[in-house]
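Justification of resources, computational component.

The compute hours requested in this renewal are based largely on the per-chain cost of generating structure records like the one below. Each record pairs the submitted sequence with a full structure-token output. That output is archived, and it is also reused by downstream analysis tasks.
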Amino acid sequence: MTTYEGSRQLPSGTPGAHSAKTIRLAPVARRIVGALRANEEHAWRGVARFASLIPLAALVFAITVLAVKAWPSIVVNGTGFITGSSWNPGSTYAAITHTHGVAHPVGASYGLWPLIVGTFQTSAIAVILALPLSIGAAFALTERMPGWISRPLGFAIELLAGVPSVLIGLWGVLTLGPFLANHIYPHIAAVMPDVPVLRYFRAPTGHGLGLLTAGIVLALMIVPIIASTTRDLFAGVPPLPKDGASALGMTDAEVARRVTLPWVRSGIIGATVLGLGRALGETIAVFLITGSILHIAPNIYSPMSTIAALIVGQLDSAGTDGTGFAVSALAEAGLVLAVMSVAVNLIARMIVNRTGRLTGPVGRG
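The structure output for this chain reads:
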């Protein structure tokens, strides 16, 4: 076998024959390697696109299943399901009746308005209490405490997020609620002025198992979510803007207010939305504290309920309805809760985008 180097024929056994073969095969090898890399990159792009669609597909699937299960209740209850205040499963002993072709017990009527109000009330209380506490804790861990203290405290805050909600609910029922009712709530009710707005706080405190206690428990449950995220955001603020602000004569409080907080404003909003989503959907802790009292709380200490607590409290008894209409009503309640959660996240995303356009990293441009 012979090879050619230029116009000169070389025997296959000579040293130049090997180098000529290498020169001839090098472009082919490069093309093969390039094709393999292109195929690998194309495959990774396909996997990444597929993985990015999984959460959206899961959300669409869950909402679709809820909508299908809730359709009989939607047909019968109509808009009264949102605006109504009665949750009556009807008589399971009377003859079954039909409305628009849907079978249901006689007298069955479902309204979700008190539970919608209770869900927003508990979540609002939780966010109002948890947000300043979380920001303060994150700021102290990153700006004020030495590392040998901040690291174990930060780890403890993260561990709090892993405590099961049923344990926190039991603690709220057995310890926190009675303590607040005996030692804290009476003082709050006593010092509040007797004016129309603040009369919501001037009422018998009961046993401490009501709206305010549920909000406090939810606040404790979402503090680790907001605080851990905010701590990482504060740690990511570059030191140069803060040092420059201090060099210009700003106090530590002014540096935090004018530099650090505006720098991470969008991230804090996102962290708050994560905590709000946890508060909106929390089930067992709220159910243990408030039960299934299906009315709007007349004062901040009164028992009430939320949509998630209603579902877990009514699911067992709904199975006794042979027509399946009660289960359909609970599915519609779950659908409403899902729509509320998605709407809150979309509104928060709009706020984040608007904030990012109107302000730079250190405040208004």
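Strands lie at 2-5, 8-11, 87-88, 97-99, 102-104, 109-110, 359-360, 363-364. The first helix runs from residue 15 to 77.
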